Amino acid sequence: MALQQLNTNRFEEFIYDNGEPCLVIFSRENCHVCKEVIPMLEQLQLHYEGKFGFYYVDVEADKNLSQRFPLRGVPSILFFNEGILQGKLAGNVEDGEIEEKIAEVLE
After folding, report:
1. Looking at the whole model, is its pTM more than 0.90?
2. CB 102 within 8 A of CB 52
3. Which one, out of 21, 67, 71, 104, has a CA that is 20 to 30 A from the CA of 57?
């Protein structure tokens, strides 16, 4: 299941207005590490359907949105709950790290 892409307007709606617990991966199309992490997120998404949202932002298509956060590079995964940034992971992360962070956000 593909991750849902967010632009600035949809980001405001999903993250701040709805306030659902979720993660957003900031990536770019030609990033080889992103191409490894995104399929892993798509698999994890199946286990959290209805409980935790999975989204992505293309940093090249939405430069303004990506500049709102202190990203050191891509991929960067930001975790939110009730519109508040709960933490982030960067680089080539393992699914266990992501699941630990999801559990923290859902507590």
Report:
1. yes
2. yes
3. 104
The phi and psi torsions of 82 (rounded to 5 degrees) equal 55, 40
- The whole-chain average pLDDT of the chain stands at 94
**Is 43 a domain residue?**
yes
Residue-wise pLDDT tens digits, 8-21: 999 999 999 999 99
CA distance 10 to 22: 14
| CATH code assigned at 81 | 3.40.30.10
> How many folded domains does the chain comprise?
1
Which pLDDT score is estimated for 3? 96
Write down the pLDDT at residue 89: 97
The rounded distance, in Å, linking the Cα atoms of 104 and 106 is 5
What is the number of other CB atoms lying within 10 angstroms of the CB of residue 26?
24
Backbone angles phi, psi at 50, to 5 degrees: 85, -10
